[in-house]
Every structure is written in C-alpha cells, then in structure tokens.
## 1
Amino acid sequence: MAERILLVEDEEKMARMVELELIHEGYEVTKAYDGVAGLAHAESGGFDLILLDIMLPGLNGMEVLRRLRRITDVPVILLTARDATVDKVSGLDTGADDYITKPFVIEELLARIRAGLRKGSAADQRRDGKKENLVLTAAGGNLVLDVDRHEVKVKNEPVELTLREFSLLQYLLENKGRVLSRDALLEHVWGYDYVGETNAVDVYVRFLRSKVDERFDMKLIHTVRGIGYQIREE
Ligand code: CA
C-alpha cells in the first residue's frame, strides 16, 4: 500500500510541484493550503508523514505542530524559510522530526522523507515489539478499543473515529467507572494549555455518542450533571 503524505503548504504552485514529485515516487498525497485545514486532515489520521510549512495563513505551522503532537507522533518535516534559525530550533523543540530549508532541491526532500518514514516505521515496530498490546473494553466486551492498532470495534463492527475522538474514548475507558470533569478531560485529551472553545468536550462527547451509543443502541457515556462524564458498565 502506498505511503500517505500530508502536504500543508499555502503556496499553491510550490505545493503542486512537490505533489507531482511525490506522486511520481509512488506516494499518496493529500494537500492542504492553510493551517486549519492541515490540522483537520492530520487529526483525521491515516498519514505516514506530514510535510508542514511554517508560514501559513490562519494557524501557523508551529501551532499546528504543537496541537498535533498531543495526539500523534507521526513524523513531521517542517518546511522553513531560508535562515529562519529560530524556527528550526523551536520546531525541533516542539516535536518536529526534521526540517528542510526553502528553496530546496527535490532529491534532498525525498531523502528526508525516506528517512522520516523509516524512523516512523521503526517506532511502530518498537511499539509492536513491546507486545503490551493495550486493549480496553466496555459494554460487557461489546466495545473493544485497541490502542496500538488504533481500532475501535463495537459488536465486532469497526467504528471510524478521528484521532481526537479516539483519544477521548481511550481516556474515558482507561478511567472506566470514574467520573471525569470537563477540565480533566480537556487537560488530558486536548492539553493543559488548550485555549479553544471550552465546550469542546461536550461537542466531542456528542460525536462519540452518535458514532457509538446511538449507532449501536447502547448507553456507554453517561453525563454526570454539573461534573462531567463517565463510562460505566450497565
Ligand atoms: Ca508559506
């Protein structure tokens, strides 16, 4: 199966050029022209590597990277402007795997992509090698969440979740039986310095309920009024 690369770059001509080269090399490419769209694609998951421009309209690349690192360790290569040393340092601090300075020759980019992909699959193998395949269950074993495989099944049917929905469900399951406040969920699933909408937890609980509870006619996620949410066995 072709390896999937997400390319977040606002200069469309440049993005198109890189896309054509990557397709030529046999990669599957998804493009996004701004940070918000890039983050949304990245959060939906399924990429083997992300090429991320730093100077982007809307949400800049550093902010995209910071948010991304809370939910995934997919290899990220930053595309930086020439001589932006500060970007490179803070990019690597924020969790980028590598960077390449624009303008670059395509061969160098391809080499860095290959290295990034190797690193990513080595990390996957290390995780697999540990054999502590973490599987969480609920609803009397009807719901199974496999952390390493990033899979959720209900009554043996696969359920498609975004990375954020998956993280939320995982955290709720890890704390099955406990009531979790919205603040605790924000802190663990979104990060303690989250500055977005404070109703994000409620919104994502709604998404989960429609994909799990409503679809399979079960009651998994309980609202505890004035406090937060809880998964408990019926
Ligand atoms: Ca740019």
## 2
Amino acid sequence: MPVSYRDAMRAALLYLLLSVVWLQLSGHLLSSFFDESADLARWQRINGYAWVLISTALIFFSRSRLLRLLGADTWLRHQQEDRERLRQAAAVFDCTREGVLVSDRKGLIVHVNRAFIEITGYQQDEVLGHMPSMFKSGHHSADFYQAMFESLKNTGEWSGEIWNRRKCGEIYPQWQTIRAIHDDHGQLSHYVAVFSDISAIKDSEHELAHLAHHDPLTDLPNRLLFTDRAEQALASAQIHKRGCAMLMIDLDHFKMINDSLGHNIGDQLLKAVSTRLLDMFGPGITLARLGGDEFAVLAESCPQPGQAAALAQRIIDGLKEPFELADHQLFINASIGISLFPSDALSAEQLLRNADSALFKAKSTGRDGYALYTEELTAHAQQRVEIAFELRRALEQQELRVYYQPVHDLKSSRLIGVEALVRWEHPQRGLVSPAEFIPIAERTGLISEIDAWVMQQACRQMCEWQAAGVVLSFIAVNVSTRLFARRELYQQVAQVLHDTGLDPAFLELEVTESAVMDDPEVALEQMHRLRELGVRLAIDDFGTGYSSLLRLKRLPVQKLKIDQGFVAGLPWDEDDAAISRVIIALAQSMGMQVHAEGIEQEEQARFLLDHGCDLGQGYWFGRPVPAVQLDWNCAPQIH
Ligand code: C2E
Ligand code: MG
Ligand code: MG
C-alpha cells in the first residue's frame, strides 16, 4: 500500500515524541528506583541500549515505508527488471540467427550482432560508423529504395525481400524488417534492421520450380513447361507468319527393355535417348519428355510437311545407332506423329492431341516410321523424304540423264537449237520427271550439283555435235532459281565453259521469270556478269511472274520464252491468244527473240508464226529424247 508524505511526517513526529517521552519517563523512573549512582548509571545504559534497539526496529520498519513513500523501491525494482530485460535482450540479440543492425537516426551503423557478422562476412569494426548502403547489390532500382524510405517515414516500418552483397562480393537475398525507433519525446533516434539470409529458401524454391517443370530423370522440360513454351512459340509464329511442327516420339517396344533388363537399364536408355536427341537439334527446336517413353519436339520454323517429315526421319535414323549401356548394346526404333501449325491446329494442346493421333497411325501402320496428322500429307511427305534421300544416291550412281528437246525456227521449220532437260532413271520407278525432284533438290541444296552436272553434260554434248558437223545455234540449259541468286553461278559457268571448251556464244542459260523478279537488283548484276562471259540469256516461263516492264527493259536478255500455259489454249482461247500476242509484241519491241514452248498442235504453231513468234518447241516438233535419238532432219512444215 503506498505511504503518503503526511503519514511519514506523522510517523517521524510520533517517533520524536516517543523518544522524548521515553527518555523523560525512564529517566524519572530510574532515578526514583536507584539512589546509588552506580546502579543508576548502569540502568540508564541498559535503558539506552533498549531504546537504540527499539529505535532500530522502528527505523527499519519506517525505512521501508519511507522508501515506498519516495517510490524508490519501485525505481530500484524497475532498475533491476530493466537490467534483467537487457541481459535477456542482449542474449537474444547475440544468439539469434537473424542478423541485426542498429543505426542512428542519420543511418550510421552503431551496432550489429553476431549473426550479422556471420551472414555478411563483415567484422563489427568494418561496418560501425558506415551507412548500410555499403551492402547494396545493385540489384534494385532507385524506386525500390525510395519506396522503402517512404514506408519507414509513413508507417515507421518496412519489410520485404532485398538483395544485398556479402563482403566476398556474393549477392544474396534477405528477408528484412526495418523499424524506426523513437525516444520518450517521440523523436526518431534509431533504426533497427532485422534480416535473415533466404538464399537457401530461394534455392529450394528454385529447385521446386525446376522440379515442377522438368522431368527428374532426363531433366528435359515436362509436359507443363513444354505446353507453355509451345504456346509462346506459336504466338510468335503467328505474328511472323511462320509454320511450326509438333512431333510426338514414342520408342517402339520400350516396355520389353524395361521388363527384360530392368528399370535401371530402362532409365539409362531414356537418358541416353534424350541426350542423343538434344545433340541432333539446334536452336529453334524444343525437346520435352512427356512421360514414360514419350518425347515431344516443337520445331519453330518448319512450314512444309516435307520438312517436318525430314526431321522425323532424321530422328528415326538417329535413334537407330545402337546404345551402349552397361554391357548392353541396345537397338531401338521410334514412331513419330506429326501435327502442323497452323494447318492442323492453332493451340499447343490441340497440336499435341493431333500429333498423338498421328503417332497412333504411325504405330498402327507397322511402327518405325512417322505419320502426319493429315493422311494425304503423310504419303506425300514420305515420298519427298525418300526422294531427297535417293537423289543423292542417284547423283553418285549416275542415274541422272540429260534429254534434249528440239527447238525449231518457225519460219523455216529448221531445227536450230535444243533444250537440255534432266531426267532421273530410277531403278524401280523408271524415268522420273524433273518437276518431281527439282523442287526437292532445290530445298536440300542438291540442285547446285545437279545443274552443274547437266550444264557440263550439255556443253560436252554440244562440242561433240559441233565436231560431228551438226549445225545448231544454241544449246539451252535451265538454271535453278536457287542457284541464280548465288554468286558462284558465274564461276560454275566459267568453269564448265573452260572444261568443255565450248564457245560461250552457243550456250543459252534459261532463268525463270520469278527468279529474275524476286530480287531484280541481284539478278541484274548476275546477268551482266554472265553476259560478260559471252553466254546468251533467256527468260523461261515468261508470263507467269509479275515482271515490271521497266525492269525487263534493263535486263541484258536475248530471249523470252512464252510459258506453255498460254500456248495450250491457242488459237481459240481469246485470253491466251491476247497474252501471246502481247508477249510477242513486247519481245520484239525490246529487240528480243520470242520462243514458244509446249506446242502440241500445228494450229498453235501456225498462230504463233502468224503473229511473229521466232522459235517453237513442243511435242509437235519433238519430245525430249536422249542425244542419240535426235532427228536432225525433222522439219515439220506449218501449213
Ligand atoms: P521448262 O524449262 O519450262 O521445260 C519445258 C518443260 O515442258 C519440259 O518439262 C518439257 O518436257 C515440257 N514440254 C516440252 N514440250 C511440251 C509439250 O508440247 N507439251 C507439254 N505438256 N510439255 C512439254 P520437263 O522436262 O518435265 O521439265 C520440267 C521443268 O523442270 C522445266 O521446265 C525446268 O524448269 C525444270 N528442269 C528440267 N531440267 C532441268 C535442269 O537440268 N535444271 C533445272 N534447274 N531445272 C530443270
Ligand atoms: Mg526451260
Ligand atoms: Mg518453260
């Protein structure tokens, strides 16, 4: 119970009064009892001691009441409690795993704990008196710090993730809480920052995210990530108008390997398959393991079914090489289903479903092969892939032939030139038309070898005819659009002329209209260079491209060949007749020769002759034949 000041005063007065009364009374009493001064002195001494004792007891009793009165006992108790609390706080401060940094109100560091030293790598004396900005990682923008200070100013607190730099230079994430501390007068006095190093958590978060998106065995993207990436790739393909292909690969009879050799070998095989597949692909191709023995591939730039089929074939062939695994040599085959974007489906999910049903088709038609989602495409693509493969062999095994088709002067009907046309004498399929294999050769790059070979053969043949006394004005050779765009064409032609010794004036190079107009500037330069060699130039299939007359005028070309598509309708089709007339007039006005191809009937030849066409070529005059079968005396008369 608290003691009031008046109580204390009253107690003190009472004590004084008691002392006086006691001393007076005891003095009288003692002197009345004891006459002897010695006894009196002794008793007075005893009385004194008794009073001292009573006083001590009273003082002791009142002291505690007095201290209570002054509040000093509370203060002392508080002091003691505070000391206890501080001791505890210091222990916590030092033992906690969280780093603690205390700075004064200017931000200068005044205290750090042991965990701080452990986490940051800095010693206490290296940081005291410095600003916490010395730990900045450069990871955050100025806006980030601005928001932090705003929050500290407005709410007195900030907490969040922050990337700082350890003494060793390593950047690491912290979860940090900063609190502003105010003194009794409400003035800002300190900041206390408590933080924990969350790099371990981050790592495991990262690991978890990785696990959630990857197949643990092969570390390839799983279905989730693959679908996500595919969606992104498709969105970009849509913008850039690119075609993509989704391939689903399934290993044939994988279950047998698993069952007979155990899951360990099965796992090793899956890993080896994924490594081999990854080695096969370059950028722009994503590989994923969808589960079990199923893999998926997304080819981001694969517009043609033929290209997708070629990729599938490459995968099938690539997996055929045996796998060497722990004393086992394993052979596996794969089946592949292909679905194309955008022709088969627009979403990744749908493409996967389509590829899956195509895979089913591939499996049901005997495995170890591929199938496209669209059936007609499968057959077509398969054929193209086969042709591409076989064409290389055809070149090596000399299965290509050059046929020659006569070109006649329409006025005199005389055979004045020939066009060299390539043929493929396929061991099983017989004579294959260039229309079938030239586009494939162009795509696979083989065209350059084929054209060089045909040119060589044709020039050599022309030399032989000349030596035999055959008089021909020219031998025409077709130049592929692909080759025409390349600089090496010039060297190639020069080389052939040099090797064969043919007078360049007898060699005519046919270039299609589209090849010329696709890149007119390159074409112009190329043509001028070829003209410097002394060869003649003709524009083939004229009327099918979109020639600019202005550009045409600038080309160093000696001949226009009217496309057979316009000749076919002559003389009755009015449009064909009008176009043919215009082309003839155009060529004449530009000083070029006009050459009509695809003449199958006399009426066509008649019409063309009547309208001033110079040369004619077609079945009516003669089909393309091997050199030895050419009939030099053939000169069908136009009536
Ligand atoms: P092109 O240069 O326009 O050749 C004319 C094509 O028309 C030839 O087809 C020829 O056989 C065909 N033809 C000729 N007269 C008639 C006719 O009266 N009626 C019909 N319906 N067709 C006729 P071919 O030999 O199948 O060649 C097709 C195309 O393949 C050629 O068209 C040419 O662009 C290309 N080509 C042929 N040989 C070569 C070559 O050695 N190199 C390159 N790059 N392309 C070649
Ligand atoms: Mg031609
Ligand atoms: Mg033609």
## 3
Amino acid sequence: MTAQILDGNALGQKLRAGFKQRAEELALQGMRPGLAVILVGEDPASQVYVRNKVNACAQAGFHSEKHAYPADIEPSAVFDKIAELNADPKIHGILVQLPLPRNFDTEALLDAIAPEKDVDGFRAENVGALVQGQPCFIPCTPYGAMKFFEEAGISLKGKEAVVVGRSNIVGKPMAMLLMHAGATVTVCHSQTRDLKAHCLRADILVAAIGRPKMITGDMIKPGAVVIDVGINRLPDGKLCGDVDFESAKEVASFITPVPGGVGPMTITMLLANTLESAERSANT
Ligand code: NDP
C-alpha cells in the first residue's frame, strides 16, 4: 500500500480563496480583518514563521502588523503593546510568537491578550471553552489537522486515535478535538511505556513530539491515517517530521508530508480565526 498524501498547501490554498472572498464582503462594510504578530528575540525559525504569517495575511487581503523586539526588551514594554492592540479597532487577532525569552512569563503575557482577539486560542478561557465543547478559537495547528479529516471524508466516530505529545498548543487540544469528533483517544508522552504498542492500535495517529522521524513504519497499523505535526531541521538543513515518511507511507492509508502538510494548514487556520473574529466584531 502507498498512502494518499494529505496536501496542506493545496487544502490551504482552497480554504484561503474562500477567506479572501469573505474579507472582500467585510470590505464592503468598511472593515478589513487585522492581525498583529508580536515577535521577541532573533530565533531564526520564529522569524520565518512570522514572515509566513504576515505574507499569508497580505495574500488574503487582511491587514497585518509585525511588532518585533530584541530579546533583552523589558517585558513591560510588550505588555503595554498588547494593551494598545487590545484597544485597537483595526486589530481582530493578536498572536505572540512562541517561544519567548526565558525572562518572560509566557502564561501571563498570553493572558494579557483580550479573549476576543486570542486567535491562537491559548488563553485559559479559550482552553476551557474547547474542553466544554463551547464556541471558542480552536488552536490553529490541531484545527488544521482536523480539516484534513473533513476534506478527505475520514470519519472519526468510534476510531482509535493516538496522539503522541501532550503540549498545551498541540497534543492536548488535538486530543480534545478528536474526542469531541467521536474518537477514542489515547495521549502518549515521554513517560509512556511501550509507545509502539499504543501506536500500533491507532486508526488515527498524530505525532507532535519534536523528534525527527521517531515514528517508523513498523509502529503504524496498516491503513492508519497519519498526521505528522513535527517540524525538525536535520544537520543537512532539510526539514523533516516526527514520522519517518518513507517507511510510514508504505503502511498508512493517508499521510501528511513535512514540509507541506500541517505547517501551511496552521497558518490557514490562523487566518480563519482572525476572519471569524473580524466578522464577530462587524456583527456587534
Ligand atoms: P513540546 O516540546 O511542547 O511537546 C513535545 C511532546 O512530545 C511532549 O508532550 C513530550 O512529552 C513528548 N515527547 C518527547 N519525547 C518523547 C518520546 N520519546 N516519546 C513520547 N513522547 C515524547 O512540542 P510541541 O507540541 O510544541 O511541538 C511538537 C512538534 O510539532 C515540534 O516539532 C514542533 O516544531 C512542531 N510544531 C509544528 C507546528 C506546525 O505548524 N506544523 C506548530 C507547532 C508545533 P512530555 O510532555 O512528557 O515531555
């Protein structure tokens, strides 16, 4: 068996075309969806992610602003900027690019974002609403992963889903979304005993670990759907996922590549959340 590729670039483009149209409808009311991105420090990967987000906004006809600070900036200056953006009617979404320098209290800074502009969905209110199945901003990476199932017509009801990784930004919200969609979910992490045995039970396997090619073909149930969230840079400079694509694609029924899978969908769903926030604000 060779797995079908779940193409994040193609799905992202399709969804973004729809967002552009919705942004044009808002423009008729004199409004443009606006995203502010805050970047602290000089981490090269973060700089690339921020650039991609700003470019995606421009292509979709959104307004965007980048606020970049050196790593040694006083945290209070960034808190002040967030307060200013919270009150700015041009801005419907505020994103703080993570990770932040060590002297920052990440939780406190994310909590400073107004809940109605928390398009990353990381604030405690949003997380609580997600757990309760109430309307909320769904964190962009797991939201993007869910879109693959929808697009490919993959039903999750009654399926065994295994999520490897339990971070607040990927693993935990991913598990919650899969559970809401009717899957029976197991969450694995660094203390899990016999990871392979868990993975081999999975009809749906999501890898969000941050370890290059850790999930190999022999850990995958034949016919499983594999979502690879990992983005790892190899010594030769190439990117790879947490799944060993070459061996996995011979066993899985569907698989996301890296690059070109979950990554572009994360940015796409950031646009979706920003647009939704702008539409809510237009309707109030
Ligand atoms: P974290 O480092 O926050 O979490 C990694 C998780 O993997 C932890 O729960 C950790 O367990 C678990 N883990 C580590 N080693 C093992 C192991 N040997 N066996 C089982 N579990 C293990 O990472 P993130 O969730 O933020 O990101 C995960 C990956 O996804 C990274 O490669 C990141 O770059 C990528 N990413 C990609 C995005 C995209 O847009 N495509 C967006 C966000 C992230 P424990 O909790 O016990 O430490």
